[in-house]
Design a protein that fits this description.
This protein is mainly α. 66% of the residues lie in helices and 2% in strands. It is flat.
């Protein structure tokens, strides 16, 4: 199988996993609405380790909050959006990682939003939490996809594409 086909295979698999993860965060409200309270509560509790799940800071669906807050929902939706944008911005089989400076630049608005609210400088909003999460998720896709492909299918040194390992060992 060619490197291009391998890369598209891994891209498709990562997209499937990301979309399935989004489905998981929508599942507890659906389970609650369809009378499966025990299953809904079990999923909420299971996902409480990754998110505070404060109802006032969460999107609602079918009368119940999603399994994660608006910032986490933004991150996960942003990741899917980033994956959808990726083939329009870069070749899927290009394993070069963007300049690392983009990750902290993308995370800076979220850090300001969290810290500003925490120290009482300002009150963050539902919109600011969601928007900063979206930004981080979109940018994260551009870092995680090349890493995902490179780990799954390491390239030989003579390969025309740069490998993830070569990029970081320099």
């Amino acid at each position: 199988m060619s490197n291009t086909r391998k890369s598209w295979l891994m891209y498709s698999l990562l997209m499937l996993i990301a979309v399935m993860w989004l489905a998981v965060i929508f599942l507890p409200p659906w389970l609650a609405a369809t009378g499966h309270s025990f299953s809904a509560i079990s999923l909420y509790r299971g996902l409480s380790g990754i998110c505070h799940q404060i109802p006032e800071r969460s999107f609602y669906w079918l009368g119940s909050p999603l399994a994660v807050c608006s910032r986490c929902t933004g991150i996960y939706f942003g990741f899917v959006i980033g994956l959808m944008l990726y083939p329009f911005c870069r070749r899927v089989n290009d394993l070069t990682i963007p300049a690392l400076v983009w990750l902290p630049i993308a995370a800076l608005p979220m850090l300001v939003d969290v810290c500003g609210d925490t120290i009482g400088l300002f009150k963050n909003t539902f919109f600011s939490r969601t928007a900063t999460g979206l930004l981080v998720g979109i940018v994260a896709a551009f870092f995680l996809l090349p890493a995902w492909v490179a780990i799954a299918f390491p390239r030989s040194p003579e390969s025309p594409e740069h490998s993830f390992k070569e990029h970081y060992s320099a």
